[in-house]
Amino acid sequence: MSKIKMTANVIKQDMIGPDIYSLWILAEEIEAQARAGQFLSVYTKDASRLLPRPISICEIDREAGALRLVYRIAGGGTREFAGYRAGDTVTVLGPLGNGFPEIAADRHAFLIGGGIGIPPMLELAKELNCEKTAVLGYRDAQLFLKEEFESYAKVVVAAEDGSVGTKGNVLDAIREQGLIEDTAGHLKLPAGKAVKQKPAAPVILACGPTPMLRALKAFAAEHRIECWLSLEERMACGVGACLACVCQTGGVDAHSNVHNKRICKDGPVFEAGEVEL
Amino acid sequence: MTDTRVTIAGVELKNPVMTASGTFGSGEEYSEFVDLNRLGAVVTKGVANVPWPGNPTPRVAEVYGGMLNAIGLQNPGIDVFARRDIPFLKKYDTKIVVNVCGRTAEDYIDVVERLGDEPVDLLEINISCPNVKEGGIAFGQDPKAVEKITRQVKDHARQPVIMKLSPNVTDITVMAKAAEAGGADAISLINTLTGMKIDIHKRTFVLANKTGGMSGPAIKPIAVRMVYQAANAVKLPVIGMGGIATADDAIEFLLAGATAVSVGTASFFNPCATAEIVEGIESYMKKYGIADVKELIGAVR
After folding, report:
1. What is the CATH number of the domain that holds A149?
2. Chain B, 180-219: which have a CB under 8 Å from a chain A CB?
3. Could you tell me if residue A265 is inside a domain?
4. Which of the residues B31, B47, B59 would you substitute to probe the A interface, choosing the one with the greatest number of A C-beta atoms within 10 Å?
């Protein structure tokens, strides 16, 4: 495993939602090592904007050696990226971070994405070889990536404005449809009681805004469900040196020797019980 | 043959390029991109006598041509540092400069004493961090305090002492002279300039700490000016830093009077920056037929 900084060719770019762009780049050296849940540092050409933008990997095309980045315009740097067209180049560093864990084939994975936390769940949906339900939270009826998820998983949608699916957030959808309670129910059976068709043990894998992740962490703890969260924070170096993007941990971290882990290097995916949100 | 060696307080560096404290960890993360053997020295992230958790996030913000940071000197404490980070750096043929931070004079002395038996080449005393409430810059903005803490550290240090100065002062030469009067072996400057960024959409401060230290190419002219002033005010060797991103930048600092330079924020946007600057200085020397890099130091007056 090594991180590679390279100039990649842009294969294509499309706007797929309000201010949301899908950028395919040719980056074989990075693709060869990349996995779901990892991210790239993407550098602007405008030298007044120094710091790389951390953007998660949405999809990996193993045959083409290509990576797909789906991001929202959040400022001048991402606005520059949105202007790239086929034939342009972009400098990237990656793959960074640890990615999502492997999930056994007899599990039921709930892939939960909120807003711009949806994209990294798509490659995970492709890679996982188990029962999968994607719960996708949107602002409104502009459902970017939804159809693509449907190729790999059962899809449940929540929209904040109630225009489609469950009105509210991903947890509202989970509760309204009794999604995880049903499968978690077997955990509460008295010991030794035979179950004919034991439901697959659920596991939550999620990326999205911190309030959503906080609610999922509490939900998972309450129902004693394994839960993995992909976190986000402002970063500088992206490789674990600068200590900008830390998150708080319950225990003392072995590297920092304080209650902090580095999201870029030790994460961005953490077991929910490990981090304080 | 070009001679790139420079000497700081009796310690010979193979070239004048060092890392800037806080931007390079203890070298491990960047060793994937840079052969640490190529560097004159690695200056570590500041270490205190006990672990420090640092500030809340967000800790960084981008600004035009630079960035703000308010990490707050998060560090694992001297015990873990000495057990893990010094042995890591000893594997490389480069000099080790340990940056020392503290809240009180006793804290600094504690760390300095514990480093006395360690294979460390130089100590850099951070009296200029703008992001912590106690210690840090509180020692660095009053010439009497600079002189006093320098003397206290010198009384307990086995290795030569570099005092790292703050640019957030009216007259840098006063601080440089105070460090010299206190017995410093060298000075390094500049640390970051205190800045602020406000998010006009959320109407809040971008950094949780409200203020942060500004670094990056945008501060370079200020740093060059201060290095020039300090180098002409004291007899001590000066380590220059502040916005160095290329060999050209580094050479500017040497010409202004720096004996060595530190590369900081540049590593964030170019992980190979330090090694590229070493090569760039050699190319510059060849181009202009300069046999000894020391010919460049303070050559512009």
Report:
1. 3.40.50.80
2. 216-217
3. no
4. B59
Tell me, yes or no, whether A82 and A120 share the same domain: no
A103 part of contact set with chain B, CB < 8 Å:
no
Domain boundary pick from A67, A96, A125: A96
Inter-chain contact A236–B67, Cβ cutoff 8 Å? Answer: yes
Identify which of A25, A45, A19, A146 has the alpha carbon closest to the alpha carbon of residue A95.
Answer: A25
Q: Tell me the C-alpha distance between B73 and A114, whole Å.
A: 33
Q: At what angle do helices B143-156 and B105-114 cross, to 10 degrees?
A: 30
Assigned CATH for B6-296: 3.20.20.70
Q: Is residue A258 part of a domain?
A: no
Query: Which residue segment(s) compose the domain that A125 sits in?
Result: 108-230
- Does the beta carbon of B24 lie under 8 angstroms from any beta carbon of chain A? yes
Calculate the alpha carbon distances from B164 to A20, A126, B148 in Å: 45, 52, 14
| Predicted confidence (pLDDT) per residue in A217-272, tens digit | 999 999 999 999 999 999 999 999 999 999 999 999 999 999 999 999 999 999 99
Q: Which residues of B touch A265 (CB under 8 A)?
A: 29
Handedness of CA B210, B216, B218, B223 (dihedral sign): positive
Domain limits of chain B?
6-296
Domain match, A89 and A31 both: yes
Q: Pairing mode, if any, of strands B260-263 and B238-241? A: parallel
Cβ within 8 Å, pair A47-B74: no
Q: Do A25 and A72 fall within a single domain?
A: yes
A138-to-A97, A151, A171, B19, B197 alpha-carbon distances in Å? 26, 19, 12, 44, 30
User: Is position B129 annotated as part of the catalytic site?
Assistant: yes
Among A3, A51, A243, select the one facing B54 at the smallest CB separation: A243
Comparing CB atoms, the residue among B22, B74, B269 nearest residue A260 is B74
Q: Do A90 and A139 reside in the same domain of the chain? A: no
User: What is the predicted ipTM?
Assistant: 0.93
Q: Which of the following is catalytic: B78, B129, B165, B247?
A: B129
> How high is the mean pLDDT in each 10-residue block of chain B (301 residues)?
95 98 96 97 97 96 97 96 98 98 94 97 90 72 94 98 96 97 98 97 97 97 98 98 98 98 97 97 98 98 89
